[in-house]
Design goal:
Layout: E1 11-18, H1 25-41, E2 46-49, H2 76-88, E3 91-101, E4 104-112, E5 118-123, E6 129-130, E7 133-134, E8 148-151, E9 154-158, H3 167-175, E10 180-184, E11 188-190, H4 197-215, E12 218-222, E13 225-228, E14 231-234, E15 238-240, E16 246-249, E17 255-262, H5 264-272, H6 275-278
Parallel strand pairs: 1-2, 2-3, 9-10, 10-12
Antiparallel strand pairs: 1-17, 3-4, 4-5, 6-7, 8-9, 11-14, 12-15, 13-14, 15-16
């Protein structure tokens, strides 16, 4: 996408920080802050980081020692990100391992506004438990619902990784008024399934594009890169427009992607494809059921 300063007034420039993670948390933070500065220098007004950016993806094993990686909100990471947000006059979406209380932990995204203060908190709602993604051991499911946040860059929604497979999450966030959905992500292929890598990546990319189309929003998916233990992270962070086309996409290496999101395309998409108008909200009561048996009463 163009990085020219002559953009429409309705345009929000977003930055996607795609990087790797080393064992040293402070090294990861310092490198990420440098990449945030690069995105800001290129005109980004909102910069999104990958999921759990400050540490390697520790959920590959169930190990109680990893609880020591967690921190409160506000805490050291939010302070560092807040200082960066204030210094650059931007909004930062940062993902961290939150210690809410003794024995109570969340996978949390925090928005830091241009004033350096916390502008919003989202706690990951859908928690996976798959080979090398043993998150249920660490994270309590979120209890804040699917909010949207008013920021200096407009009304934004934030969801986290596994949330991105659930159309309900994207829909509810869009219904709160979000015009851009941000997904900090740590997704890749387990070494025991490398033959499925292409299929898994295509499914992930397709799902995010579907969220953009179904809700008439921009979708910003920010992934990490590199090989950590038995996981091969794809990178390939990207932005999908409200019509589902891909505005820009990163490669498989460390990269800062800066993309213009013209929010007038949200109105155009929703007027052309009026899915919100035609929703049958009177007929969706069953969606809150875990499963619908054949003998369920359907009046």
């Amino acid at each position: 996408m163009s990085e020219s300063s002559s953009t429409p007034a309705s345009t929000i420039r977003v930055g996607l920080v795609q990087t790797h993670a080393e064992a040293d948390a402070n090294s990861n933070l310092a490198r990420t802050l440098d990449l945030v500065a690069e995105a800001a220098e290129r005109g980004a007004r909102v910069v999104c980081l990958q999921e759990l950016f400050r540490t390697p993806y520790f959920c590959q094993a169930e190990d109680a020692q990893h609880f020591r990686l967690a921190e409160p909100v506000p805490g050291p990471t939010t302070r560092a990100l807040g200082e960066a947000a204030k210094r650059h006059g931007i909004t930062i979406v940062g993902s961290l391992f939150e210690k809410r209380a003794a024995g109570l932990f969340h996978n949390t995204a925090v928005l830091l506004g241009p004033d350096g203060e916390v502008a919003g908190i989202y706690r990951k709602m859908h928690i996976p438990d798959d080979p090398r993604f043993y998150e249920k051991f660490y994270f309590t499911p979120g209890d804040l619902g699917f909010p949207a946040f008013d920021t200096a860059a407009g009304r934004l929604g934030v969801l986290i990784c596994w949330d991105q497979w659930y159309p309900e999450a994207a829909r509810l966030t869009a219904l709160k008024g979000a015009r851009i959905l941000f997904y900090p992500t740590a997704i890749g292929t387990w070494s025991g399934e490398l033959e499925q890598r292409s299929t898994q990546h295509d499914a992930w990319r397709t799902m995010q594009r579907a969220h953009a189309i179904a809700n008439g929003v921009f979708v910003v998916a920010v992934n990490r890169v590199g090989v950590e233990g038995a996981l091969h992270f794809w990178g390939r962070s990207f932005v999908a427009r409200p019509d589902g086309t891909v505005a820009a996409e990163a490669g498989a290496e460390e990269e800062v992607l800066v993309v213009d999101c013209d929010l007038s395309h949200v109105d155009e998409a929703r007027e052309g494809w009026p899915f919100f108008r035609d929703r049958r909200i009177d007929a969706y009561g069953d969606i809150t059921s875990r499963w619908l048996d054949d003998d369920d009463d359907r009046a």
